[in-house]
Design a protein that fits this description.
The chain has about 900 residues and is of the alpha+beta class. It is built from 29 helices and 32 strands. Helix 18 packs parallel to helix 22 (about 655-735) and helix 22 packs across helix 28 (about 870-880).
Length: about 900
């Protein structure tokens, strides 16, 4: 509860102190001026306003009430007592406020607030108080429960907003009518309050005007439901009476009919109103039979009879006296029921029973009917014939006298009817029992099959009777015994044949398993061999051997140890599964291996690893749960290569002879793979050394050619030039004798010409050995000079094309391309027999490529390389390979030759960087 207190002196106000004691659990909003009063009304949900008397004097009290303006109750002592003549309103109000009533509370709180709260709280029906705008001011707990909203959310809400759409306008109309007429308004409310009879009650102020409106909602749902049920029952009863063959009439002491329904109206053709205007004696002959019954009823006796009506129906009529609370007879009630169908049904039942009796007597199977008391109430003649009994009483004696009919079960054990009856007559379901009996006064045993079924009451669903059918199956049983004998003999033959087939199947399965195992072994061997042949990496080969061994041998652990002759020990090279070991697997010295050979033989078979002793590393195997296994040595050229090992987590798990055989084959394959890999590594190393040697040889050759070319050009060329100059000088200095001069000059001229030719030859040899233009200007100028000299010597035209060669390349790459083209041109001049050769050189960001092509006689490249007829071809291929390039020679006899080279430029960029 939120209470607003307006006090000019909150610190010492008697009103405020009293309210704090009274409303300890409530929220007190205290303000000291009119502005705070207005803001508090806006910001808080205020339910009651208390005004201090002094504040009421300082401020305009009517203004305070007008400011509240929402129907919130406002209390102040000034309303109870006027201001004193001295003007001490505060003292008077405080005194009036502090005076206590009989229960010790302030009177105005007792008389107003507590009264309202007590009334609301005591009411069991939903009760609310509204202001004139229809907003909820107060609501008791039943109203909160019915509406289903919290109190703080409900207070201040318009009643229409918490109503169902169908009752909003109805409630608003009721509020307006109360405000207008100042009287109580009642509505039948089917809205949000379910079924309620709501009363809108005006609350008048001192001037007699409507200040607030109270709502009392009485729950009438139960009453309406009862009224609805009564109407439905009355309608149902009337429908039953009108639509059935029941006569119903009431007669007073004077014989007048006071009520009639059903068959009575049908027989007379009168309506209920016409019937009540007559006496029963006036409606002859229908009610003439009521005379005797009416007289007996007036004597206080009941009367019953059967009456044949004019419409050929039979009616059972009962007349009963009607008494008041003191037992005085007021009249009689006549109730009649049409029993025509019942009588007809009884006749039909008799005919059915006769027909049933004839059928049951003609059936060869015995039929016994047992009631709920498990007493035999019927047995047909066949039952007496099967058992030799004469009466139903003898059937009943079977419980007490088992010797009347001697019975045995299917195993020949004597049994009694008292043992069969509980199971046969069980209520849970139908049963079937087979047994043999010897009828009374005979020695012939007969086999009887008893089947029981249940007959249920259609109305209640309970079991009414049990019908037991007895069928003579002696002949069938005899045939069954013969069939069982034949069946047993047949089953014995089948068992013998089945056993023979099973044995053959086991042998076939064993043979199949052996073939399957052999196929798996062959597959594993072939797989290992093929993978080893395809692989050259030693770790891959070892992993392949381990995987295949683990798969075929079905051992959880497999490893390979390789022998290292440098340390004379075996090192772990492969392990599956890859177990995390606490420390590296140690090397096993060869002497430890030889010690194990001496202990366990070859191959090494270990049934328990605890027997190994102090061999390094085997404690690690026990840590990873390896307790048994075998080791097969890898031997090549009588030298130890390594060990192939298998392991198991079971003690005593050792490979069988066939498994050892397969393991030996896998070991041999592993040995071949390891040896092949090592040989391949050796060949690869030799090839790399040969390639490096060839590269170095080419570099040395080029250097020697460069040195020789320089020496020819600088030393010999200069000497020959000087010799020629000297010869020319000698020719000019010779004397003028004709004979001597002519001959000497002739020899000097020839010598000078020879010197010139020798100088040209030296210059040409120098250019062939090492073209200085290649070092100075680059590849294309050097090729252009080569083509010019080649054409001048051979008269073969060179078509040179190039692109993308604006930059310089690595000197080794340039000299390699130059030498390959030079060698290709030389071969074309010697063997192609052509007049023209095409030379093309181009480059991009990745590769430098060359192509030399002619349309000459061609040749068989493979044969030429195999017969090693041309060292030039091999030299070109080796030069290209030394630079990381690839050279292809494509030639066919009579179809020309094409030489293509490709050199990756990124190799030289990586080397340079």
């Amino acid at each position: 509860m939120s209470i607003l207190v307006l006090s000019s002196n909150p610190a010492s106000s008697a009103l405020l102190q009293t309210l704090r004691k009274r409303f300890q659990a409530s929220e007190l909003v205290v303000v000291s001026d009119f502005t705070g009063f207005q803001n508090a009304l806006i910001e808080n949900s205020i339910e009651i306003i208390f005004v201090d008397p002094a504040s009421a004097v300082e401020l305009d009290y009517p203004q305070i009430k007008a400011c509240a303006g929402s129907g919130i109750p406002i209390f102040t002592p000034l309303e109870q007592q006027p201001v004193s003549e001295t003007g001490d309103a505060s003292a008077l109000a405080s005194d009036r406020f502090e005076r206590r009533g009989a229960n010790g509370e302030p009177p105005f709180i007792n008389h107003v607030y507590q009264a309202v709260q007590a009334l609301l709280g005591a009411a069991t029906d939903p009760t609310m108080v509204l202001d004139l705008e229809g907003r909820i001011i107060l609501a008791n707990d039943p109203a909160i429960t019915v509406i289903g909203r919290p109190r703080e959310e409900l207070i201040g809400q318009e009643i229409a907003k918490v109503s169902s759409p169908g009752s909003i306008q109805l409630r608003r109309n009721a509020i307006e009518q109360v405000k207008k007429t100042k009287s109580i308004v009642r509505i039948d409310d089917e809205g949000s309050f379910s079924s309620f009879d709501s009363i809108f009650w005006p609350i008048l102020d001192q001037k007699g005007e409507v200040a607030q409106i109270a709502i009392l909602a009485r729950n009438v749902a139960e009453r309406k439901e009862m009224e609805t049920q009564l109407r439905e029952r009355d309608l149902m009863l009337r429908t039953v009476v009108e639509n059935t063959s029941i006569l119903f009439a009431a007669i007073d002491r004077e014989g007048s009919i006071t009520f009639a329904e059903g068959k009575a109206l049908h027989l007379t053709g009168l309506d209920p109103h016409q019937m009540t205007e007559k006496k029963y004696s006036d409606i002859a002959p229908v009610f003439s039979v009521l005379g005797e019954g009416f007289r007996r009823a007036l004597e206080g006796k009941n009367y019953a009879t059967h009456v044949s009506l004019p419409d050929q129906t039979m009616m059972q009529l009962r007349v009963t006296p009607i008494r008041d609370d003191e037992g005085a007879i007021l009249g009689a009630v006549a109730v009649g029921m049409d029993i025509t169908d019942v009588l007809q049904s009884k006749g039909q039942v008799r005919r059915v029973n006769q027909e049933r009796e004839a059928v049951l007597n003609s059936i060869d199977d015995g039929i016994i009917v047992v009631n709920n008391a498990k007493k035999i109430v019927y047995a047909n003649p066949a039952c007496f014939k099967l058992t030799g009994l004469d009466t139903l009483e003898e059937f009943s004696e079977l419980h007490h006298n088992p010797e009347l009919v001697r019975m045995r079960d299917q195993n020949g054990k004597p049994i009694k009817w008292s043992q069969l009856a509980p199971e046969l007559l069980s209520e849970d379901k139908s049963r079937e029992v087979l047994f043999s009996l010897i009828p009374k006064n005979t020695n012939t045993r007969r086999w009887i099959s008893l089947k029981s079924s249940l007959i249920y009451d259609e109305a209640s669903g309970d079991v009414r009777y049990r019908v037991v059918t007895a069928h003579d199956v002696t002949e069938l049983k005899t045939i069954q015994v013969e069939l069982e004998s034949i069946q047993e003999e047949l089953e014995r033959g089948i068992e013998q044949r089945t056993e023979a087939l099973n044995q053959a199947n086991r042998e076939l399965q064993q043979h199949f398993n052996e073939l399957q195992h052999a196929a798996a072994e062959a597959e594993a061997i072939a797989s290992v061999a093929s993978k080893i042949n395809l692989q050259t990496d030693l770790p891959d080969i070892l992993q392949t051997v381990i995987d295949e061994t683990e798969r075929v041998m079905n051992y959880p652990f497999c490893s390979i140890l390789l022998y290292d002759e440098d340390i004379d020990a075996l090192l772990l090279a492969g392990l599956s599964p890859p177990v995390r070991l606490p420390y590296p697997f140690p090397a096993i010295p060869r002497r430890s291996y030889e010690k194990m050979i001496a202990m366990f033989g070859t191959p090494i078979i270990i049934s328990d690893t605890t027997m190994i002793g102090d061999v390094p590393g085997f404690e690690l195997l026990q840590m990873v749960n390896v307790w048994s296994g075998a080791s097969i040595p890898m031997i090549h050229n009588e030298e130890l290569i390594g060990l192939l090992n298998i392991g198991s987590a079971e003690r005593g798990r050792v490979p069988s002879p066939s498994e050892l055989k397969l393991l030996k084959i896998l070991t041999d394959q592993a040995t071949i793979g390891i040896v092949k890999t090592r040989l391949f590594e050796q060949v690869s190393e030799s090839r790399e050394r040969l390639r490096a040697l060839s590269t170095r040889l080419v570099e040395v050759q080029e250097q020697e050619r460069r040195n020789l070319a320089i020496e020819l050009h600088d030393e010999i060329g200069q000497s020959l030039t000087l010799l020629r100059l000297n010869l020319d000088l000698i020719a000019r200095l010779l004397p003028g004798e004709p004979n001597v001069c002519v001959e000497v000059q002739s020899h000097l001229a020839k010598t000078s010409e020879t010197t010139v030719r020798l100088l040209d030859k030296v210059r040409e040899i120098s250019l062939d050995l090492r073209p200085t233009m290649l070092d100075d200007l680059g590849l294309i100028p050097a090729l252009a000079s080569l083509n010019e000299r080649f054409t001048s010597r051979t008269n073969i035209q060179i078509l040179l094309k190039h692109s993308g060669l604006e930059q310089r390349y690595d000197p080794n790459l340039e000299i390699t391309v130059f030498r390959i083209i030079q060698e290709a041109l030389t071969n074309a001049a010697r063997h192609a027999d052509v007049d023209q050769v095409s030379v093309r050189v181009w480059a991009d960001e990745l590769f430098l490529r060359l192509q030399v092509q002619d349309q000459g006689v061609g040749f068989d490249v493979a044969a030429a390389l195999q017969q090693q007829r041309s060292s030039g071809l091999s030299g070109m291929i080796e030069r290209a390979s030394a630079c990381g390039g690839l050279l292809e020679i494509d030639s066919t006899p009579n179809e020309g030759t094409c030489i293509t080279g490709e050199f990756p430029l990124y190799i030289y960029r990586e080397v340079a960087s």
